[in-house]
Amino acid sequence: MTCSPSTFWRGLASAALGIALMPAHATEPQSAKDAPAVGQTIKDCTDCPTLVVLPSGSFLMGSAETEKGRRSNEGPQHRVTIGYRLAVGQFELTRGEFARFVNASGYRTELAMGEACHVLDGKKWGKSSEHHWLNPGYAQTDEHPVTCVSWHDAQAYLAWLNEQVPAKGYRLLSEAEWEYAARAGEAGRHAWGNDDDLSAACAHANGMDVTGRAQIPDVTWAGVNCSDGAVYPVAGKVFKPNAFGLYNMAGNVWEWVQDLGHTDLGGAPTDGSAWIEGGEPAFRGTRGGAWFSYPPALRSAYRGKSAPEFRGGGVGFRIARPV
């Protein structure tokens, strides 16, 4: 699974543009005989991330006005139909998977070209030129999710992966697809239910908790009143998966999505496609919360956004492809 840097760079701009504009449901036809079953894990090549095949379906995107912890950008609540099957990363992309891309392609992240990563220093986030995707400010292995990567870095990885395994259409999830995948059929506040007192949160989500507050100096914001045993991002199957078999959809690291930032959900697509018109072109969406997130950010409807060149010690991405 290799390509020369020159081959990679010749195709990067057009490939990344194709990913950005591809409709969420665009794919080559696949016979029922060859199609993987819902719930099946697939791995298209030795170095490819493991994906889980999700069923088609519909759900209410956003939050009801009465939902505890709700923010105004989570409405109006509306029905979205995912009328196609989608394969979604079982985990967030790992540091090892991103390293294979960098080593094979010769890609230089924006960080390597003089930018800084936002890391937590005490109770404040600030830019640090000493930190990057190989050193995000905490200990990690190649099995941990890659962080300190921008939306543009994610697009570059996807363009490269699509060269290695053509015709699969790897991309980021749309915001609607992400919420559908995170909810996994659950209409409540979290994929594990409403859990208003968050008594079950530490079994399912890696957010700010008793462990983090005890070990990270000067944390002033709220956390869940239980201990999940983790301070920073975790690797693999530490927490329970959701009903679709996806891990760390709540907490761990924020995940880039394809959509532009939008101040609310008024006029959002209802077919699962990425919302790349109007909105706020200076921002791209992020979803899921992170290891430092306060409780409301662990809800399935919580919406974030950042500048596409932003990189932080709590921001990574998860990939998907049509089936």
Question: Can you put this structure into words, describing what you see?
Answer:
By secondary structure, the protein is an alpha+beta fold. It has one domain: paralog of FGE (formylglycine-generating enzyme) (Alpha-Beta Complex). Helix content is 19%, strand content 18%. The protein contains six helices and 13 strands. The strands form four sheets. Strands 1-2-5-13-8 form a five-stranded antiparallel β-sheet. Strands 11-10-9-12 form a four-stranded mixed β-sheet, covered by helices on one side. A hairpin with a 2-residue loop joins strand 6 and strand 7 (124-128). Helix 1 packs across helix 3. The longest helix is centred in the N-terminal third of the chain and has 17 residues, at 5-21. It starts with a helix and ends with a strand. 48% of the residues are buried. Mean pLDDT is 89; it is low at 1-29.
Topology diagram in text:
Elements: H1 5-21, E1 41-42, E2 51-54, E3 57-61, E4 78-82, E5 86-89, H2 95-105, E6 117-121, E7 124-128, H3 151-164, E8 171-172, H4 175-183, H5 201-204, H6 210-215, E9 254-261, E10 280-287, E11 303-306, E12 315-317, E13 319-322
Parallel strand pairs: 9-12
Antiparallel strand pairs: 1-2, 2-5, 3-4, 5-13, 6-7, 8-13, 9-10, 10-11
- Strand residue percentage: 15-25%
Number of DSSP helices? 6
| Uncertain stretches of 5 or more adjacent residues | 1-29
Structural class of the secondary elements? alpha+beta
**Text of the CATH class:** Alpha Beta
Please name the CATH topology: paralog of FGE (formylglycine-generating enzyme)
What letter string, H or E per element, gives the SSE order? HEEEEEHEEHEHHHEEEEE
Output the radius of gyration: 18 Å
Summed over residues and divided by their number, the pLDDT gives a mean of 89
State the CATH architecture.
Answer: Alpha-Beta Complex
Signal peptide: 1-26
Pfam families: FGE-sulfatase
Domain Sulfatase-modifying factor enzyme-like: 48-321
Protein name: Formylglycine-generating enzyme family protein
